[in-house]
Design a protein that fits this description.
Elements: H1 5-31, H2 37-50, E1 53-54, E2 61-64, E3 86-96, E4 104-112, H3 118-143, H4 150-163, E5 175-176, E6 189-190, E7 204-206, E8 209-212, E9 216-219, E10 222-224
Antiparallel strand pairs: 1-3, 2-3, 3-4, 5-6, 7-10, 8-9
Helix pairs in contact: 1-2, 3-4
């Protein structure tokens, strides 16, 4: 079912709060350079409580260094400390603690160090290009009066990654719909298996990523929805 005006506004409010919490988390890491993945995750959870945000069954993803190479990594209590020249990945999702409130879901990358290594920078640039090309494709389809199809958006994203030489580093689909009980909705995804058009007034993620086993991973995630007049 399409989201109502109230549901869309509640999603936007949740997304804005996630953005603030993301900023606070990176600031905390900068001021506490020996923090662990678990400690930073607990800091984020405290911010969720302060802002009256609700989680689903899983805690936020906080990953340092080689942990970022695991797409769905949840730090244990004895997780690693932050060290100089370390990649940081934060994936957070939540919703307002009220009825008619869908989730928002974002992922950001940061680097704790003076100079980002070339391999990481190239992967990051490619992932950002992938994300933006998907968005541009959606917008171009809408300008033609067409609703973009899930598999076509995924194909656009994968083409960018494959051309950059990252075919074997793609470990998940380009995006998913957003739900009320979970950040993963049931309305269809941006994947090669989905031949249905994207639905209007329902939130979706665009979250391309590349992962290098034992080294690092890069993911960037934004949310979007399409209104009725395209």
């Amino acid at each position: 079912m399409p989201w109502t005006k109230t549901e869309i506004q509640n999603h936007i409010k949740a997304a804005a709060l996630l953005g603030q919490i993301k900023n606070a988390a990176f600031s905390y890491a900068s001021k506490n350079p020996k923090t662990t993945e678990y400690e930073l995750q607990q800091f984020i959870l405290k911010k969720f409580q302060e802002n009256k945000l609700k989680l689903d069954k899983d805690p936020p993803i906080v990953a340092f260094g080689t942990s970022t190479a695991i797409p769905h990594y949840f730090p244990p209590q004895d997780s690693v400390e932050l060290k100089p020249d370390t990649l940081i990945l934060i994936d957070i999702w939540s919703r307002l603690k009220k009825r008619n409130s869908p989730f928002a879901d974002i992922t950001w990358i940061g680097y704790h160090g003076k100079s980002v290594p070339m391999k990481i920078q190239r992967a990051f640039n490619t992932v950002i290009k992938t994300r933006d090309n998907c968005l541009k494709f959606i917008e171009s389809e809408l300008r033609l009066g067409k609703m973009p199809v899930g598999k076509d958006v995924d194909k656009v994203g994968c083409n960018v990654l494959v051309k950059a030489g990252y075919k074997k580093n793609i470990l998940h689909r380009t995006g998913h719909s957003i739900g009320f009980h979970s950040p993963h909705g049931k309305q269809g995804h941006l994947s090669l298996k989905n031949e249905e058009p994207i639905l209007t007034n329902i939130g979706y993620t665009i979250e391309p990523g590349v992962y290098f086993k034992g080294e690092f991973g890069i993911r960037s995630e934004i949310n979007f929805y399409i209104i009725k007049n395209k």
